[in-house]
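Field log, afternoon session.

UNIT: design team B
ACTIVITY: writing a sequence onto a fixed backbone
BACKBONE:
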């Protein structure tokens, strides 16, 4: 699965912080920068298929459009910040169309965290911290050209699915909508999304359904319809194939609090 996080893209002065114990997050992308610091333990970060092992005092910078994921095998304590391009607009314009060979850097003090986590920090301090973090990577890593058409197509596919999963969409319709040859797009999709189009759409739908099951009291039939399944039988089949339990069993086993989303 590759998730396009539209809510983290194209916003002005957007900044989001979180602190984690044992961070795990599937492959995703957005049009914002993302930086992670590791305070303790070891965290794996995969960027465009390349794995980086972050230990205590290591940081890493993910550029807009890059597909990335996180995995903790044993233990990690980390801080993550997502910020929009306008916070570092000069750096963004300079680096656009390129990527770092090694986006890791040494995180040698907690001043950046204090500034970014403090709701009362002024925007000039925030600009300074974020430019400083970008500068750390820029001063230590080689830079190489990226395949911009690849990034654009990956993002367009993910964005299209997330905005049309409720409909009866097909790869043929997607190729027509994006203006790509069907055979080319089919091969591209299978290679980079690691499954065929139909399987990806259904996987996206049941992942969303699982969130509804955990976090709402909506009926299973209602969730099936919301998530774009044509029949409850098909929903049950696909869900069980993905999670090895039925939607009803999954809800019973869930320990999350119930609230509307």
């Amino acid at each position: 699965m590759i998730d396009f996080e539209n809510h983290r893209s194209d916003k002005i002065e957007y900044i989001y912080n979180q602190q984690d114990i044992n961070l795990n997050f599937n492959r995703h992308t957005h049009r914002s920068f993302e930086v992670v610091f590791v305070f303790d333990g070891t965290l794996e970060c995969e960027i465009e298929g390349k794995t980086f092992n972050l230990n205590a005092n290591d940081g890493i910078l993910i550029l807009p459009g890059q597909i990335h994921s996180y995995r903790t095998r044993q233990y990690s304590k980390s801080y993550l910040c997502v910020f929009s391009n306008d916070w570092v607009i000069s750096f963004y314009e300079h680096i656009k169309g390129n990527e770092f060979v090694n986006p890791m850097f040494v995180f040698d003090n907690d001043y950046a965290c204090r500034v970014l986590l403090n709701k009362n920090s002024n925007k000039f301090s925030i600009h300074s911290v974020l430019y400083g973090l970008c500068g750390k990577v820029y001063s230590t890593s080689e830079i190489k050209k990226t395949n911009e058409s690849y990034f654009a197509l990956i993002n367009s596919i993910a964005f299209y699915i997330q905005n049309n999963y409720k409909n009866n969409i097909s790869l043929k319709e997607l190729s027509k909508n994006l203006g790509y040859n069907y055979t080319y797009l089919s091969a591209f999709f299978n290679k980079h999304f690691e499954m065929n189009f139909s399987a990806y759409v259904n996987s996206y739908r049941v992942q969303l359904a699982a969130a509804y099951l955990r976090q709402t009291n909506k009926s299973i039939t209602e969730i099936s319809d919301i998530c774009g399944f044509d029949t409850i039988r098909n929903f049950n089949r696909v869900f069980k194939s993905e999670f090895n339990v039925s939607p009803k069993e999954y809800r019973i086993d869930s320990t999350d609090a119930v609230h509307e989303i």
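LOG NOTE: The CA atoms of residues 1 and 200 lie 7 Å apart.
NEXT ACTIVITY: expression trials, pending approval
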